[in-house]
Fold this sequence. Notes:
The complex is a heterotrimer of chains A (220), B (92) and C (501). Chain A has helices spanning 2-23, 31-37, 46-54, 56-76, 89-112, 120-136, 146-171, 179-207, and strands at residues 79-80, 208-209. Chain A is mostly helical. In chain A, strands 1-2 form a two-stranded antiparallel sheet. The longest helix of chain A has 29 residues, at 179-207. With 501 residues, chain C is mostly helical. Chain C has one domain (3-496). Chain C is 73% helix and 3% strand. Chain C is built from 20 helices and 2 strands. Chain C has helices spanning 3-23, 31-57, 80-103, 110-129, 133-151, 157-188, 208-225, 234-237, 243-251, 254-270, 272-278, 281-300, 305-325, 329-360, 371-374, 376-390, 396-410, 414-440, 455-477, 485-496, and strands at residues 62-69, 72-78. In chain C, a hairpin with a 2-residue loop joins strand 1 (62-69) and strand 2 (72-78). The longest helix of chain C is centred in the middle third of the chain and has 32 residues, at 157-188. Classes of the chains: A mainly alpha (220), B mainly alpha (92), C mainly alpha (501). At the A-B interface, helix 1, helix 3, helix 4, helix 8 and strand 2 of A face helix 1 and helix 3 of B.
Amino acid sequence: MAAAFLGGFIALACLALFAAVLVAPAAPGLEAAVAAALPETGVTNPVTGVLLDFRGYDTLLEVAVIALAVIGAAALAPRETPPAPLAGPVATAAAAVLAPAIVLFSGYLLWTGGARPGGAFQAGALLAGGLVLLEITGSRPWWRRGLSGRLGAAAGTAAFLIAGLGVMAATGRFLDYPGPDWGYAVILAIEAVAAVSVAVALSALFAAEPGDGRPGEGAP
Amino acid sequence: MTSEALYAAVALALFGLGWAGLLLKAAPLRKLIALNVMSLGALMLLVAFAWRPDAPPDPVPHALAITGIVVAVAATALGLVLIRRVRADRDR
Amino acid sequence: MTGSAELLPVLIVGATLLSAAAIFPLRDDQVRLRAAVCLAGPAATLALVGALIAGVRSGARYEARFPFLPGDDLLLQADALSVLFVALSSALWLVTTVYALGYMRHGPNRSRFFGFFALCVSATMGVALAGNMITFLVFYETLTLATYPLVVHKGDAATLRAGRTYLIYTLSGGAMVFLGTMLLHALQGAGGFEVGGLLAQAETRPSDAALRLLFAILIAGVGVKAALAPLHGWLPLAMVAPAPVSALLHAVAVVKAGAFGVVRVVYDVFGVTLADALGVLPWLGAAAAITIVWGSVLALGQDDLKRRLAYSTVSQVSYIALGASLAHPAAAVGAILHLIHQGIMKITLFFCAGAFAEVEGVKTVSRMAGLGRRMPWTMAAFTVAALGMIGVPPTAGFVTKWYLAIGALEADGAWVVAVLLISSGLNAAYFLPIVGAAWFRPPPDDMVRPEPPPRLSVALMAVSPVVTALLVMAAALLATSIFSPLGWAQALALREFGFER
Lengths: 220, 92, 501
């Protein structure tokens, strides 16, 4: 009976939500405010401006959430999967061709994010795909393992914090970038570190192997 | 029906499907997938709200959606590790 | 406004929270200390509530704001309606604590039990004192979470299953209230409860469709706790809880918070005039009427005493929604009065049911014959409360039904009188045989009596229902005195309908 109630309730609640969306008066968005303040940031893509400047706190904590997930996974899974479950001539050859292209394209995504759709998270996700490709073909890079891997996963948060404190020295407020020229440079620097950091973190999450919970022979 | 309403309808359908799966399915993996479907619905609703009839979309909900996707990925990954750890401990 | 005037509502919620915080760390074997703390909490709260009543009577306004969300404050305020509910809750908290100290003599986790008990009262106080929808929502959800450990106190598999159903229902209702709160905000912005209706005073009135939707969502949300059919499924299952919890849940905390929510939504969010103009009230009235009759019919078929009482609650609480739906001052008086009267009557019945089970091992209706001779005081209290439920004068139930019937007749709702009569007939059908058998028939031959509890326990479990049964009588006999809730209810109804500002 509870299940029937729940199913009916969820259906009704979603219908009610839909009706609420239809009848609620359209609230004015923030696009005008964003457009007015965008020249201050040095970037021309409003989404990037919002993410890295206007809602910088939000994005800083978001990068921290990824690092926290890695810490959580490391606590639950002290071992990582043995690399190369798919190692073989075809996979290895494909990875050899694809990996450089992925690095190149994610670099492009990172750079273009200042003006067009793209940015740190998109670039980081793509780069993480490349790292996963390397994982499963047996060529896990050395810096993905052990301490440097953990530090890499935390680097995005660290870079964001350092940049935020650095601009504080100039402007007196945390994460308040000074003017368009400097702002662009700071944003791009943060994004570059964040992209690599996100990639390292995501591929570490991919490789987390809970096993039986005891540190095994393969523990880093 | 405007395309905004259509998007909202599909978003809420996804949200409801995920919600039902999250609460009615017992298997943890199904719950996790359902949670992802649910959060997709929520993100899609954000994107629908950002839509403007004859102007570029509102960038703030878009930025929120990107933030949401990233957090959802991190949460899902941690959830998967948790599920596998629980299973490993149970099988031991 | 002076500092203390702002503080009083905060102090009341704070006192309940503090007593919860003081109870939790106690060890289970610190019986005397725990009893002292458990009684000090309600006593202190009652004193504060007394000050609040005196203040509100002399026209003082109490209001405390805390920043919560941008543009939305947490607002605790004391208007006449909240004072009524706060007074009921604190008084019955004290009585129930006395009863529970007798009832919960043994078993593990008693500090946890009494701690969550206080926490649950604390959430109820918050619901009562909430000055706007968002504050109401916060405490309404807290109430769900604080009552869950009480419902599943026994902790066996069946109890946990019932508790799960309880959570599913109540959290779903909470989600609906959340949705309604958001929609209210989108339509109206931040605003508190207003006599005559928050939405009625809006400068630009939202579309009728939007307002009807909002009404449906909010009523569905509070209707889960108020056990409006078909949202009542959790209530009979929640009977797995210990008797003092059932008593508190049915009389004050959960069910009553839902009914209180219905009153708030109809009177202070929409306002009777606006709700009447929207044409939504007959729907609420129909749902309430169906619940009243259906709940009574189901109660008739229950042999388990607590389950019979549970279905009786389903039926009786909907009188409040019925009165609120009639858009007539006299019916409003009935609805507001029933908030109080149903509370004292139903808590008496549950006290008695728990005492019968603990002292004589009687849990079912079919084995209640002859109980009157062995537990005369408790059975007398049960009889008074049962007569009150039926609506026999001079009991509290009679006053309520009287005002509801007058309101119905004057609002051209003769069908409501029919519903009241049918319901009273059904009430009589499921209560009178119990009372008759208990007083006039010999006990069953195969009576197995359990190990009798300590005499102090028995005394505590007898005193509480007798006190509340006396209140049931007093509410009718002293209805015109200044201490009776009737005067408050009349003043409230007059203001709501705009006869008096």
